[in-house]
Specification:
The complex is a heterotetramer.
Chain A (H helix, E strand, L loop, with lengths): L10 E5 L10 E7 L2 E8 L7 H6 L7 H5 L6 H16 L5 H29 L4 H22 L8 E2 L2 E2 L7 H22 L4 H7 L7 H6 L5 H5 L6 H4 L20 H25 L17 E11 L2 E10 L6 E5 L1 H15 L2 E2 L2 H8 L4 H5 L1
Antiparallel strand pairs in A: 1-2, 2-3, 3-9, 4-5, 6-7, 7-8
Helix pairs in contact in A: 3-4, 4-5, 4-11, 4-13, 5-6, 6-11
Chain B lengths: L5 H11 L4 E8 L2 E6 L4 H12 L3 E10 L4 E9 L6 E9 L4 E3 L9 H11 L2 E3 L31
Parallel strand pairs in B: 2-5, 6-7
Antiparallel strand pairs in B: 1-2, 3-4, 4-5
Chain D lengths: L7 H15 L13 H8 L21 E5 L2 E2 H13 L5 E5 L1 H5 L9 E2 L9 E3 L6 H18 L8
Parallel strand pairs in D: 1-3, 3-5
Antiparallel strand pairs in D: 2-4
Helix pairs in contact in D: 1-5, 2-5
Classes of the chains: A alpha+beta, B alpha/beta, C mainly alpha, D alpha/beta.
């Protein structure tokens, strides 16, 4: 990226890609004293060309690279791709497989949200206790994933036509136990974070994004819902088992960092409810339909599937040409949209240098998802 | 004049703005495509945003149809009221991939157009900052997502 | 014939008789007298050292080098273990037998033998000098702290409080030099934040210290401690006590006021460019300055070395109480680090200027009135 | 010079030095790719790499271990090299995951590079992502390597 000109009265600071809080990206900020005048996001440090790689994989092989887009939330990402493949190839999915998919997606969402607010807390200062509590609680979910799929993070569990395996013996009880444990823990989080006056001081009124701006700049996920827009793909276009499940779309009006945090918080509560519902009401039956190992597509078919990942709406648009591989896969990644919002936030309100990491992690960026 | 259903939207667009677009299609529920004329895409975009409520930009990307000698730029747009997803498609000839930048209507398309520029070589006229987004700034390897890209990434 | 053999036998018999009848009692007597003997022996030894090596002892052991280094090491180790516990972890474990107590020594040795990088654009002399000066200045200030009424390393002639404040007031200059010398944007911002912070934090501290001195009627730290024999100044000077506690965290750049070295914003502030042993010195400086301000806090408000007698020897008692109070304050400040996020620079400055400053002036006025009332 | 270094005192110094370096590995806060969440779990409660004295640190100047966590893109590759050059001796590189080691699932991508083209590596940890046990094992291998090779007499510096 060529660097735009610098005005004489500001100092340009380059954040990252080696910086404790920048993650895998570089952010150029123009600071005037402590006030940030301009943010320039220089992304692309983890660009791996997944869209091109997918053109060279068969439909089922493609699950592996696309899962690596968001490691903390692989279930939702893989579901987006698998649903697009199913739509393009015309594959039916049995009911029980849909419910299992929803269960794993919600577990992935909790996993990812834990990560998100752990980092947001970490950003408000060296406040590491809560951040590392989240890693402890993530282990509960990771153990469930491992029991179900055999892997902790990247579990290629969804395949076109269903899921790879049925729930193991006693898994539903373990889900219920995990839900009970997490409910208890989230009370601790709420006390340590939202009820902490200094934490509130750092987050309230910081990085305010109004409802109109959120829509105009194309925000998505908890960022959009934190600004009061109740858009959630799970409600708008119910996929998997979400049509049969009972949950609410969480919105907050303020649009600041605290609102985004609260949205994530309440979404976790909803996810726990969904997990319990699924553990109680999951229907029986087969978990997959027979699909050939190398399914051949019909020429000229397009399928756009949308799923609600933890970071927002993911769209996977598959174009086929009648071969064994997709002709083109377009991935509409949520973080890329939110990164643009982040870039514009310095113009929308007063941003201080110290607020920058908080704002950055309140949009929950996942650069691998952003760069693809 | 908010359209109630996908078919009504398509019919209305075809009836009232036929000079701006080639075609309009309903794929399935909540998925609508509009194929715009390249020269007049800005007018159509403004109408879509102001009159039809497609205020939320989602994403944009292109497809390279090498056999037909064209590329198609696709803008994914969202109506936050009716929750329709509209794909605004623009066909570009492969030997002259150039179109007006849509950032003046939806400035959030900035990143996506930069990505399309570096991946497909589509030249967006009037884009504020058409520089490399994902690839390194000194990238000289060609346009990776074009079908005739011959760098790494193609199995021999 | 009373020959030699008989005499020898008699002697042996007498010896056996003594061993059987009298020796146990004497041995027991000796053992019983030991508890009184050992203190006497120690006292003799102590007097010997006292008159011969007192200055040397003060320089080397307490409050000298060994104390400062030991404090830095124990504090770092304790902080790491304590934070790890708060995070539900174990912390350093394998370095040293199952407790990681050698961890800090390992870190220090490693830093000592590591290459240090001097950046090309740095102001080299200043860049190398600043980290060495950094722990020196607060360490100088510590020499003024009384650990007993006659255990003061550096006698400032009855003016030890102002001298302490003057020396400690020098210390912010060094981070500014260090940040400027490194010629890096992060270090520059960090060092200017340090400057802001010291200005807003130090003035309330000085005013509070003045109020304490006023109440004691002396500028000498020993007199201030002695004046607290009836009651610790934490009670009559409660506002000053709180302000000084906040200001002490602020001066020592500890969470929640560690703005200049904010890890999430400015890498590690003005320390970013230091490597190897230079970084080790800056780390140590943080703890030394923390130690200095905490000791002053104890002297001004928590009765300094005063406390009930435990060992009989006043000096032991006094040093014991001083260390115990120090340990309690350190635990509280580390505890604060585990539960509070960092404030922003503007919030910190607002706290300093809008709340600490007027309150400290109020405190001074109240002390004046109290003193006037006592005199009248 | 070589004879002088065999004196017993150098053996003691050597032991102390390797011991200190072994238990004080400070990796940089630097992630290049998608193994980062697993890396975070390793620093978390169940696996806790601080037991070994591994303390992630903010600035590259103070660190002595570059943990390359995850895929390296072309754009990132320059930075990895640059960071390695910024570190003071002695320095170590650990390649975490299949991606830096051999480009992993992105083996045919136009935008990824393998770590061997950039910096010398001390320990490779396979897996996609590697399990925490594997990362801990890799760190212990690094410690073993430091003990054997990074003394005063080993000629590393």
């Amino acid at each position: 990226m060529s660097e735009p000109e610098i005005k004489p009265e500001v100092m340009r600071i380059s954040w990252g890609p080696q910086h404790p809080m920048s993650g895998q990206t570089r952010i150029l900020i123009d600071v005037d004293g402590e006030v940030v005048r301009r943010i320039i996001a220089d992304i692309g440090f983890t660009h791996r060309g997944i869209e091109k790689i997918l053109e060279n994989r068969t439909f089922i092989q493609g699950i592996v690279p696309i899962e690596r887009m968001v490691m903390a939330d692989t279930a939702n990402i893989a579901l987006g791709y698998v649903q697009a493949v199913e739509e393009a190839l015309g594959i039916e999915v049995p009911e029980r497989a849909k419910w299992i998919r929803s269960l794993i997606c919600e577990m992935g969402r909790i996993n990812s949200h834990l990560y998100a607010f752990g980092l947001q807390v970490e950003c408000t200062g060296y406040f590491p206790a809560v951040f590392l509590w989240t890693t402890v609680d993530r282990e509960v979910l990771l153990d469930l994933f491992e029991k179900l799929t055999g892997a902790r993070w990247s579990y290629s569990f969804f395949i076109p036509g269903g899921v790879r395996a049925d729930l193991p013996e006693g898994f539903r009880d373990e889900v219920r136990r995990a839900v009970r444990y997490l409910r208890r823990r989230f009370q601790d989080y709420w006390d340590a974070m939202v009820e902490n006056p200094l934490f509130e001081m750092r987050n309230r009124g910081v990085g305010v994004l109004s409802r109109e701006d959120a829509i105009r700049l194309g925000a998505t996920g908890p960022v959009l819902r934190g600004s009061g827009v109740d858009m959630d793909v799970r409600k708008d276009e119910p996929y998997a088992a979400y049509g049969d499940l009972d949950f609410k779309v969480i919105t907050e009006k303020e649009g600041d960092c605290l609102a985004r945090l609260k949205v994530r918080f309440h979404e976790i509560e909803q996810s726990l409810n969904i997990m319990e519902q699924i553990a109680d009401e999951i229907p029986g039956g087969p978990v997959r339909t027979k699909v050939p190992l190398f399914p051949r597509s019909k020429p000229g078919v397009e399928a756009l599937s949308r799923v609600e990942t933890a970071r927002g709406e993911l769209g996977v648009h598959i174009f086929t040409d009648g071969g064994l591989k997709p002709y083109r896969v377009k991935i509409n990644s949520p973080t890329l949209r939110n990164m643009y919002v982040f870039e514009r936030l310095a113009e929308l309100g007063r941003v201080l240098v110290a607020d920058l990491p908080v704002i950055l992690y309140s949009i929950d960026p996942w650069y691998l998802d952003c760069d693809r | 004049m908010q359209a109630r259903s996908e078919e009504e939207l398509v019919e209305e667009l075809k009836r009232e703005h036929s000079e701006l677009l080639h075609d309009a299609i309903v794929h399935r529920s909540k998925r609508v495509s509009v194929i715009a004329k390249r020269e007049r895409v800005l007018e159509l975009a403004r109408i879509l945003r102001d009159q039809y409520g497609f205020t939320q930009p989602v994403s944009a990307g292109a497809v390279d149809y090498i056999k037909e000698g064209r590329m198609q730029m696709i803008y994914y747009l969202m109506n936050p009221k009716t929750r329709f997803m509209l794909m605004l498609r623009v066909d570009l000839p492969r030997d002259d991939p150039r179109m007006p930048s849509i950032t003046e209507i939806w400035d959030a398309m900035n990143f996506h157009e930069r990505e399309a520029w570096e991946m497909f070589g589509i030249n967006f006229e009037g884009h504020p900052n058409l520089t490399h987004l994902l690839l390194p700034p000194d990238w000289r390897g060609g346009y990776p997502l074009r079908k005739d890209f011959r760098g790494e990434g193609i199995r021999p | 014939m009373m020959d030699v053999v008989t005499l020898i036998w008699l002697y042996i018999l007498g010896l056996v008789r003594w061993l059987l009848h009298e020796a146990p009692a004497q041995v027991i007597n000796f053992i019983m007298s030991l508890p009184t003997l050992i203190p006497e022996l120690l006292k003799w030894l102590w007097d010997f050292i006292w008159f011969n090596f007192k200055p040397l002892l003060q320089i080397i052991v307490i409050p000298g080098l060994a104390f400062i280094l030991l404090f830095a090491m124990i504090a770092v180790w304790f902080e790491r273990k304590f934070l790890a516990r708060a995070m539900l972890r174990i912390g350093p474990y394998y370095c040293g037998k199952r407790s990681g107590w050698l961890q800090v020594i390992a870190d220090f040795l490693k830093l000592f033998f590591k290459e240090f990088v001097v950046p090309d654009d740095a102001e080299k002399a200043l860049f190398l000098a600043a980290p060495v000066l950094l722990p020196t200045i607060p360490a100088l200030a510590i020499t003024l702290i009384p650990f007993d009424s006659n255990w003061v390393l550096f006698d400032a002639g009855g003016l030890s409080l102002p001298v302490f404040l003057a020396i400690a007031g020098l210390s912010p200059v060094i981070p500014i030099f260090a940040g400027w010398a490194a010629n890096n944007k992060y270090t520059i911002i960090g060092s200017f934040r340090t400057a802001y912070l010291y200005v807003s934090g130090e003035i309330p501290l000085v005013i509070c210290a003045a109020a304490s001195a006023l109440l004691a009627g002396s500028l000498d730290l020993v007199d201030i401690v002695e004046a607290q024999r009836p009651i610790w100044f934490a009670i009559p000077q409660f506002i000053g006590f709180l302000i000084f506690f906040i200001g002490l965290i602020l001066e020592a750049e500890r969470t929640p006021f560690d703005v200049p070295t904010a890890e999430t914003e400015l890498v590690i502030g003005w320390r970013t460019e230091f490597s190897g042993i230079l970084f080790g010195f800056t780390m140590m400086a943080e703890y030394v300055s923390f130690l200095g301000w905490t000791l002053l806090f104890i002297v001004l408000y928590l009765g300094g070395y005063l406390g009930p007698s435990l060992f009989g020897v006043p000096l032991y008692d006094h040093i014991f109480w001083m260390l115990l109070k120090l340990a309690v304050i350190v635990v509280i400040i580390v505890l604060i680090r585990t539960v509070y996020p960092r404030l922003r620079l503007d919030q910190t400055l607002r706290l300093g200027w809008n709340y600490l400053m007027p309150l400290s002036i109020l405190n001074l006025l109240m002390t004046l009135i109290l003193k006037w009332g006592l005199m009248v | 010079m070589a004879e002088r270094l065999t004196a017993p005192i150098y053996g003691v110094v050597d032991y102390l030095l390797t011991w200190a370096r072994k238990f004080s590995i400070w990796p940089v806060h630097f992630v290049t790719g998608c193994c980062s969440p697993e890396f975070m779990q390793v620093s978390g409660s169940r696996f806790d790499m601080e037991r070994l004295g591994v303390l992630p640190f903010a600035s590259v100047r103070q660190c002595d271990c570059l943990m390359v966590v995850g895929v390296i893109s072309r754009k990132m590759g320059e930075r990895v090299k640059y960071l390695y050059e910024q570190m003071g001796e002695p320095k170590f590189v650990v390649s975490v995951g299949a991606c830096p080691t051999g480009r992993g699932p992105f083996y045919d991508s136009y935008a990824t590079v393998a770590i061997d083209d950039l910096v010398p590596v001390d320990v490779y940890i396979p897996g996609c992502p590697p399990r925490p046990e594997a990362i801990i094992h890799g760190l212990m291998l690094l410690q073993e390597k430091i003990r054997r090779e990074c003394g005063f007499r080993a000629g590393k510096e």
